[in-house]
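The pair is listed for reference:
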Amino acid sequence: MRSLSKLLFWVILFVVSWPVALALLAVVALIKLAALPFRILGAVIAGALRMLLSVVRLPFWLIEKVF
């Protein structure tokens, strides 16, 4: 439903004023391109923290399996 409302917004904006719609489309693409390094960095940090948490939990998990 959310994507349908976005599509409807873009179609109405394109019909009303196509230069503004194309300019907004370019701006959105530039913003997403500028945010890409931060998303990659966030994924790397999340993976590193998940691995660190697994290393910390490993001894407790092994003790629980043994006893």
Q: What stands out?
A: Residues 2-66 form one domain. The two ends are 51 Å apart (CA to CA). The chain is about 95% helix and 0% strand. The mean pLDDT is 92.
